[in-house]
Amino acid sequence: MTVYRATLADKDGAKQIIEVYNDELDIVVRDSEQAFQSYFEPDSGLWLAKVDNHVVGCVILRPLPTPGHGEVKRLYVARGYRGQGLSHKLMKALEDYAAQINYEWLYLDTKDDLEAAIKLYEQSGYERCERYNKNPQATIFMRKRLAAQHNPSKEQQNS
């Protein structure tokens, strides 16, 4: 199993797994093509999980309007591949990248019937917070403060 940050070359597989996610969770508000393309920008990211060269999972990072704040979206692992640690690996890859590009806080929303997801988020250090968006399907809002990353280039600029 492999988890990696997707490039535009991966967009077909990424769109397919996101569509499976949307259908399985009955997502009402779906990404526009412009929103999807933005996931490949430096301040965003789309991570894919592959098993035997098949895309079986994803997670998305996108910036929020407040500098240093990002949002976790679309964490999903296909049925038949759950329980193998892929969700943890996807979240770790996203969080490592978010810290590397100096995000201080990550936010996410979910629904109260997604108990396994809520448990994963809590185990990963996310805590409940106030509503931060207008997602009509979300009932739970969470956030996590990322540990400061050692960034030598910033230290050199400040000396």
TrEMBL record:
N-acetyltransferase domain location: 1-147
GO molecular function terms attached to this record: acyltransferase activity, transferring groups other than amino-acyl groups
Pfam families noted in UniProt: Acetyltransf_1
Alphabetized PROSITE patterns for the sequence: GNAT (PS51186)
CDD domains: NAT_SF
Record-annotated membrane-spanning stretches: none
Protein name according to UniProt: N-acetyltransferase domain-containing protein
